[in-house]
Amino acid sequence: MKTNVQTTKNTPWNITKVGHNTWRGSFSSMASPCEILINCTRRQHAESLVECAYREAKRIESKFSRYQEDNIIFRINNSQGEWVSLDTETTEILKFADQLFQVSEGLFDISSGVLRRIWNFQTHSSIPTQGMIDNMLPLIGWDKITFDSDNQRILLPMGMEIDLGGIGKEYAVDLTLKKIQQMSDSLGIAHGSYLVNFGGDIVCSHKTKDKNKQSESPWVIGIETIDSLKTAPAIELVAGGLATSGDSRRHIDHEDKRYSHIVNPKTGWPIEHAPHSVTVIANTCLEAGMLATLASLQGRDCENMLIDSNTCYWIQ
Amino acid sequence: MQLAKKKRWILASAVGSLLSTQSRAYGADWQAETAYRYYSETDRVTAMEPVLKLHKTESDGSEIDFSIAYDSLSGASPNGAAVSDEVQTFTSTSGAGAAETTTAASGYRSSRDDRDDDDDDDYEGDDEYGGGVREYTVQPGEIPLDPDFSDDRLSISLQYSTPATRTITTAIGGSYSSESDYLSMAINGGLGLSFNRKNTQLGLNLSLAHDENTPFGGVPTRFSKMSEPSSSGSSESKTIVETLISVTQILSPNAVVQLNYSAGMSQGYHTDPYKIITLLDENLDILDYVAENRPDQRTKHSVFSALKYHAFGDTIDLSYRYMWDDWAITSTTVDVKYRLNLGNVFIQPHYRHYHQEAANFYVTQLHSTDDIPDHASADYRLGTLTSTTYGVKVGLDLGKQQEISFRVESFQQEGESAAANLDAVISQINYKVAF
Amino acid sequence: MKWLLYVVLISQITGCALFPGAKPWERHHLAKPEMTFGGDEINDGFDDHVYFSKEASSGGRGFGGGGCGCN
User: Fold this and answer.
1) Set of chain C residues whose Cβ sits within 8 Å of the Cβ of A226
2) Cβ contact (<8 Å) for B23 and A311?
């Protein structure tokens, strides 16, 4: 007897049918729940696409995670003052990080991760002393790092570290969509439409205009609200990226003052008056994510920056 | 605040370049494509051409292209003489062996083929290898065709391009082509510049070619008569310089256009040593046949525009070319392809229309009563000519980055001389794989 | 608490763009060989060769067609 049973293949991802010609693939990567929504007619195609997404997410995770001990980030952070050769992809990401450092006037700094040692936002603990911070500041500053992009190599002063956590997930989201589209093209899927969601960092592709359909239906994205009394608004997205900077659960309340999770790498202190969370919509997830982060780093001027940069945003 | 807008722009372009470089770096490394083409004209030549092409993309964005093709052609080809109501007998027009009583027939380039595959012509020569003595006759009212036209050609080309900066690409290449009586070598260099976030591309290209023509039986003296053949040497050459300026503009995620201008100048021997012209006497009877003679310089220009448009999941490809030169030839070409994508299969109908106006030295025959002109040719390809191609290509995606395709086309020509009326079928099979 | 919601519809219609073009992430159609000039070089090469040997024009699209004694 044929029944509509879930396939019990032993895969690290799950796939379920969630609507007419719509499939949802899920897996876990980069410490986040990852979700792939696929609009296509055949389950077999959906499975290939989810597998492709999973592989790409895992590839990026293992390549750039700072929790692994055999990847390029580990080699850079444990180089003991020696040059480290880089592959092209890492060089491109570091070039990107360098541009962010320049455009944010030093506020976006991939070498500021060492501050995590003294600012622990997970446990709501006490704030560090100025003395502790002063000891850390010499170890922070992208401008102290020699990055030779032409020859694809990097030289870190002893004791410094870099962390691509602020870029990696958004980058993975966009690249995963790209991989899905390439796979979709090689499978010959004519009117596929896809959404990639890694823990709230989202990108989706528009639907190729279907001959039989008059208009295209957008993806509807709900936004998590801090205030549970408010209903979650839904955003309709036809194509593009959405990302959120900030997290209501990650802050420190100390002596009637709220310290946000975003730390100014120049002072070692959290940015004051930064909003709890900033959601930005842009053409790609990476662009949305970086806009949200750069805006949060502006503190009180966050909203002004978003208005001036002519973007679609939402501040909580 | 202008600053924020500028920042946003910097950010957007940084994101764009990061994501676009990655897609390139992770594609397949090697791509190979082989094709086999069979070209067959009704009652005339047939050609077989296998090709192998290799393409490699390096992680730094450099690209290497190598291709090798072999081309084997045999059959009957118009010799340039006019249709007559008398039986016509032809011997060598290539001028070699002026001392011999009977000489090698025109176009008798290699005598491996001794078949007589053309019904219109009556071939009656002996088959002595190389420099063989041969004659052929053409019946009244028939187009004079040289029945044993045969050639093999090997051509190789290598092309390398590399990004110099984010927006500048340089390219260099060379090609070599060899036939038993013809040798061509060419080098080219190019510069590609991207603007407007890679939505606009400007290409500047230069090509230099040198061709060496060593006709069987030597180079015929200009306007030398078939009855008293003479040769002016064993080989001639020409040098061609061409420039191409190209602008490619992305209009939308679904449309891209290209506009090219090219100018070429060639200097040297442009004459076809195997082509002759009928010489008539005052009674309009055939007196003799003379070797043709073309100018030793040609400057040509062309404007080419093309549009590719993606709609309804299909691709439309339109192009138009206008060419003009100092031989007074002008031509227009329209080419339309529609690629219908049906999942793993595509069907692509093709239509091409070409029309040219004649060169100013094009003649159908010469008269002994007139002065011999400086230049003259009766080659139908220099006369007023219209070509039409209809075809269809069907491709099948075999998965695993493999594709196979078949193409069948009908190619027809019509012109002012009888020889211009040509009917050919082109069939082709392609196999492409990436690894 | 401030609420701000901008209506979001990133249009794929070209008419909205100030400059003609496509963003890098909108180029998946343009990246296909059939949407690329020179994307089917074997075919183009064959055609250039045939038409070079049968007509008085050549090139335009590139430097194609030459290098043989057929014309």
Assistant:
1) 1
2) no
- Whether chain B has a CB inside 8 Å of the CB on C20: the answer is yes
Chain-chain contact of B8 with A310 (C-beta, under 8 angstroms): yes
Which residue(s) pair with B401 in the sheet? none
Task: Retrieve residue A79's tokens.
Answer: 């180089």
Give the rounded percent of residues in chain A with a pLDDT score beyond 90.
25
Q: Which of B68, B157, B180, B199 to mutate to test the interface with C (most CBs of C within 10 A)?
A: B199
Strands A201-204, A193-198: parallel, antiparallel or unpaired by DSSP? Answer: antiparallel
CATH number of the domain encompassing residue B154:
2.40.160
* Pairwise CA distance, residues A127 & A257, whole Å: 11
What are the chain B neighbours of A284 within 8 Å (beta carbons)? 15, 19
The answer to whether B14 faces chain A, any CB pair under 8 Å, is yes
> Distance (Å) from the C-alpha of residue B292 to the closest C-alpha of chain C?
13
The answer for B 129-158 residues in CB contact with C (under 8 A) is 151, 153, 155
**Inter-chain contact B25–A89, Cβ cutoff 8 Å?**
yes
pLDDT band at residue A210, thresholds of 50, 70 and 90?
very low
Cβ distance C5 to A235 less than 8 Å, yes or no, reads yes
Q: Which residue from C28, C24, C45 is spatially nearest to C36, judged by alpha carbons?
A: C28
Interatomic CA distance for residues A31 and A61, integer angstroms: 9
The answer to whether the CB atoms of B4 and A308 lie below 8 A apart is: yes
Q: Which of C25, C28, C35 to mutate to test the interface with A (most CBs of A within 10 A)?
A: C25
| Cβ–Cβ below 8 Å for A311 and B8 | yes
**Cα atoms in the 13 Å half-sphere on the side-chain side of A266:** 8
pTM to 2 decimal places: 0.61
Whether residue B19 is contained in a domain is answered as: no
Q: Tell me the residue range of the domain where B147 lies.
A: 34-434
| C34 Cβ under 8 Å from any chain A Cβ | no
Cβ(A204)–Cβ(A236) below 8 Å: no
- Find residue B25's DSSP bridge partners: none
Render each residue's pLDDT in chain B as its tens digit; 435 residues: 455 667 777 788 888 778 775 544 344 568 899 999 999 999 899 999 999 999 887 766 788 999 999 999 888 889 999 998 889 988 754 433 333 333 333 333 333 344 444 444 444 444 433 444 578 899 998 999 988 888 899 999 999 999 887 678 999 999 999 998 999 999 999 999 988 877 899 999 999 999 999 998 889 999 999 888 888 899 999 999 999 999 999 998 889 999 999 999 999 999 999 999 999 999 999 999 999 999 999 999 999 999 999 988 899 999 999 999 999 999 999 999 999 988 789 999 999 999 999 999 999 999 999 988 999 999 999 999 999 999 999 999 887 678 899 999 999 999 988 889 999 999 999 998 877
Q: Is B2 within a domain?
A: no
CB distance B198–C56 less than 8 Å?
A: no
Q: Domain residue spans in chain A?
A: 14-62+170-205, 67-163, 218-316
- For residue A93, the cross-strand partners are none
d(CA B310, CA B201): 19
Within-domain flag for B325 = yes
Give the count of beta carbons closer than 10 Å to the beta carbon of residue C44.
Answer: 16
- The top-level CATH class assigned to A218-316 is alpha beta
Q: How many CB pairs under 8 A join A and B?
A: 83
From CA B407, how far away is CA B245, in angstroms rounded?
A: 31
ipTM reported for the complex, 2 dp: 0.82
B15: in domain: no
Which option is the CATH number for A67-163: 1.10.1670.10, 3.40.50.360, 2.60.200.40, 1.10.3980.10? 1.10.3980.10
| Neighbour tally for B165: CB within 10 Å | 9
Q: Over the range C19-31, which residues count as b (16 or more CB within 10 Å of their CB) and which as e? A: ebbbbbbbbbbbb
Number of domains in chain B: 1
Nearest-CA distance C28 → chain B (Å): 8
